[in-house]
Design a protein that fits this description.
By secondary structure, this protein is mostly beta strands. The protein has one domain: Immunoglobulin-like. It has 1 helix and 11 strands, in the order αβββββββββββ. Strands 1-3-9-6-7 form a 5-stranded antiparallel beta sheet, with no helix packed on it. A 4-stranded mixed beta sheet has the order 2-11-10-5, with no helix packed on it. The longest helix has 23 residues.
Length: 167
Protein backbone atom coordinates (compact mmCIF):
# COMPACT_ATOMS: atom_id res chain seq x y z
CA UNK A 1 0.00 0.00 0.00
CA UNK A 2 1.46 3.38 -0.92
CA UNK A 3 1.79 6.37 1.38
CA UNK A 4 -1.11 8.26 -0.25
CA UNK A 5 -3.56 5.39 0.38
CA UNK A 6 -2.37 5.04 3.99
CA UNK A 7 -2.91 8.75 4.55
CA UNK A 8 -6.46 8.58 3.11
CA UNK A 9 -7.34 5.61 5.29
CA UNK A 10 -5.96 7.30 8.41
CA UNK A 11 -7.89 10.50 7.60
CA UNK A 12 -11.13 8.54 7.02
CA UNK A 13 -10.73 6.64 10.31
CA UNK A 14 -10.05 9.92 12.14
CA UNK A 15 -13.18 11.57 10.70
CA UNK A 16 -15.38 8.56 11.48
CA UNK A 17 -13.91 8.31 14.97
CA UNK A 18 -14.62 11.98 15.60
CA UNK A 19 -18.21 11.63 14.42
CA UNK A 20 -18.68 8.58 16.63
CA UNK A 21 -17.29 10.42 19.63
CA UNK A 22 -19.65 13.34 19.03
CA UNK A 23 -22.66 11.00 18.85
CA UNK A 24 -21.67 9.08 21.97
CA UNK A 25 -21.03 12.16 24.12
CA UNK A 26 -24.11 14.06 22.94
CA UNK A 27 -26.40 14.73 25.94
CA UNK A 28 -29.70 12.87 26.03
CA UNK A 29 -32.77 14.91 25.11
CA UNK A 30 -34.63 16.49 27.99
CA UNK A 31 -37.55 14.34 29.10
CA UNK A 32 -40.50 16.63 29.55
CA UNK A 33 -43.61 16.18 31.65
CA UNK A 34 -46.03 17.62 29.12
CA UNK A 35 -48.39 14.66 29.14
CA UNK A 36 -52.09 15.32 28.71
CA UNK A 37 -54.13 13.42 31.25
CA UNK A 38 -57.52 14.64 30.19
CA UNK A 39 -59.37 15.87 27.14
CA UNK A 40 -62.50 17.84 27.84
CA UNK A 41 -63.89 17.18 31.29
CA UNK A 42 -65.22 13.62 31.10
CA UNK A 43 -62.33 11.26 31.96
CA UNK A 44 -59.66 12.63 34.28
CA UNK A 45 -56.58 11.39 36.04
CA UNK A 46 -55.03 13.31 38.90
CA UNK A 47 -51.67 11.89 37.89
CA UNK A 48 -50.58 13.07 34.43
CA UNK A 49 -47.35 11.08 34.27
CA UNK A 50 -45.15 8.88 36.36
CA UNK A 51 -41.35 8.99 36.57
CA UNK A 52 -39.72 5.65 37.41
CA UNK A 53 -36.44 7.48 38.01
CA UNK A 54 -33.24 5.59 37.22
CA UNK A 55 -33.85 1.92 36.48
CA UNK A 56 -31.54 -0.85 35.33
CA UNK A 57 -32.18 -3.08 32.33
CA UNK A 58 -30.95 -5.96 34.47
CA UNK A 59 -33.68 -5.39 37.09
CA UNK A 60 -36.53 -6.32 34.76
CA UNK A 61 -39.96 -4.84 34.16
CA UNK A 62 -41.40 -2.00 36.23
CA UNK A 63 -45.07 -1.09 36.52
CA UNK A 64 -47.34 1.70 37.66
CA UNK A 65 -51.12 2.07 38.01
CA UNK A 66 -52.95 5.23 36.90
CA UNK A 67 -56.44 5.76 38.31
CA UNK A 68 -58.90 7.38 35.88
CA UNK A 69 -62.41 8.63 36.69
CA UNK A 70 -65.45 9.69 34.67
CA UNK A 71 -66.46 13.07 36.09
CA UNK A 72 -69.18 13.72 33.52
CA UNK A 73 -72.89 13.01 33.91
CA UNK A 74 -72.82 10.56 30.98
CA UNK A 75 -71.15 7.24 30.26
CA UNK A 76 -67.93 7.38 28.24
CA UNK A 77 -67.05 4.60 25.82
CA UNK A 78 -63.35 3.91 25.35
CA UNK A 79 -62.89 2.08 22.07
CA UNK A 80 -59.08 1.76 21.83
CA UNK A 81 -56.05 1.69 24.08
CA UNK A 82 -52.46 1.51 22.82
CA UNK A 83 -48.93 2.58 23.69
CA UNK A 84 -46.29 4.64 21.89
CA UNK A 85 -43.64 1.91 21.98
CA UNK A 86 -43.35 -1.86 21.99
CA UNK A 87 -41.43 -1.68 25.28
CA UNK A 88 -44.61 -0.57 27.05
CA UNK A 89 -47.79 -2.56 27.66
CA UNK A 90 -51.02 -1.35 29.22
CA UNK A 91 -53.91 -3.13 30.92
CA UNK A 92 -57.44 -1.88 31.59
CA UNK A 93 -58.61 -2.83 35.09
CA UNK A 94 -62.22 -2.33 36.21
CA UNK A 95 -64.60 -4.21 38.50
CA UNK A 96 -62.00 -6.87 39.27
CA UNK A 97 -61.34 -7.67 35.60
CA UNK A 98 -58.06 -7.04 33.83
CA UNK A 99 -58.01 -6.73 30.02
CA UNK A 100 -54.84 -6.65 27.96
CA UNK A 101 -52.04 -6.34 27.23
CA UNK A 102 -52.41 -3.45 24.83
CA UNK A 103 -49.23 -2.45 23.02
CA UNK A 104 -47.94 -0.46 20.10
CA UNK A 105 -49.89 -0.60 16.81
CA UNK A 106 -47.86 -2.30 14.10
CA UNK A 107 -46.01 -4.53 16.59
CA UNK A 108 -48.47 -7.36 16.93
CA UNK A 109 -52.23 -7.37 17.24
CA UNK A 110 -53.74 -4.59 19.37
CA UNK A 111 -57.32 -5.60 20.19
CA UNK A 112 -60.11 -3.05 20.51
CA UNK A 113 -60.94 -2.15 24.12
CA UNK A 114 -64.65 -1.29 23.79
CA UNK A 115 -65.32 -0.59 27.46
CA UNK A 116 -67.65 1.90 29.10
CA UNK A 117 -66.93 3.97 32.19
CA UNK A 118 -70.19 5.12 33.71
CA UNK A 119 -70.65 8.52 35.31
CA UNK A 120 -68.70 8.61 38.59
CA UNK A 121 -66.96 5.28 37.93
CA UNK A 122 -63.24 4.68 38.20
CA UNK A 123 -60.88 2.36 36.36
CA UNK A 124 -57.16 1.70 36.49
CA UNK A 125 -54.70 1.78 33.62
CA UNK A 126 -51.87 -0.53 34.66
CA UNK A 127 -48.68 0.16 32.71
CA UNK A 128 -45.70 -2.19 32.42
CA UNK A 129 -42.40 -0.90 31.02
CA UNK A 130 -39.58 -3.25 29.95
CA UNK A 131 -36.29 -1.32 30.19
CA UNK A 132 -34.41 -4.10 28.36
CA UNK A 133 -36.70 -4.17 25.30
CA UNK A 134 -34.38 -2.02 23.18
CA UNK A 135 -31.15 -3.66 24.30
CA UNK A 136 -27.96 -1.63 24.81
CA UNK A 137 -29.19 1.06 22.41
CA UNK A 138 -32.07 1.80 24.82
CA UNK A 139 -30.07 3.35 27.65
CA UNK A 140 -30.68 6.95 28.66
CA UNK A 141 -33.81 9.04 29.09
CA UNK A 142 -37.06 7.55 27.76
CA UNK A 143 -40.58 8.87 27.58
CA UNK A 144 -43.60 6.79 26.55
CA UNK A 145 -47.31 7.46 26.26
CA UNK A 146 -50.48 5.43 26.70
CA UNK A 147 -53.47 6.49 24.59
CA UNK A 148 -57.16 5.82 25.20
CA UNK A 149 -59.48 6.86 22.35
CA UNK A 150 -63.21 6.98 21.68
CA UNK A 151 -64.84 5.30 18.69
CA UNK A 152 -64.12 8.36 16.50
CA UNK A 153 -60.38 8.11 17.22
CA UNK A 154 -60.42 11.18 19.47
CA UNK A 155 -58.19 11.00 22.55
CA UNK A 156 -60.05 10.40 25.80
CA UNK A 157 -56.94 10.13 27.98
CA UNK A 158 -53.20 10.35 27.27
CA UNK A 159 -50.94 9.25 30.13
CA UNK A 160 -47.16 9.15 30.25
CA UNK A 161 -44.24 7.40 31.85
CA UNK A 162 -40.59 8.32 31.87
CA UNK A 163 -37.37 6.82 33.16
CA UNK A 164 -33.62 6.94 32.84
CA UNK A 165 -32.47 3.47 31.78
CA UNK A 166 -29.03 2.14 32.74
CA UNK A 167 -27.39 -1.15 31.65
Amino acid sequence: MNTKNKSLIIAAVAVLGSLGLILITKPAPEVGGNFRAEVGSAIVSEERSFDFGTISMASGDVSHDFKIRNESSEAVKIDKMYTSCMCTAAYFVKDGGRIGPFGMPGHGFVPPLRRVIESGEEAVISVVFDPAAHGPAGVGAVQREIYLEDESGNPVVVLGIKATVTP
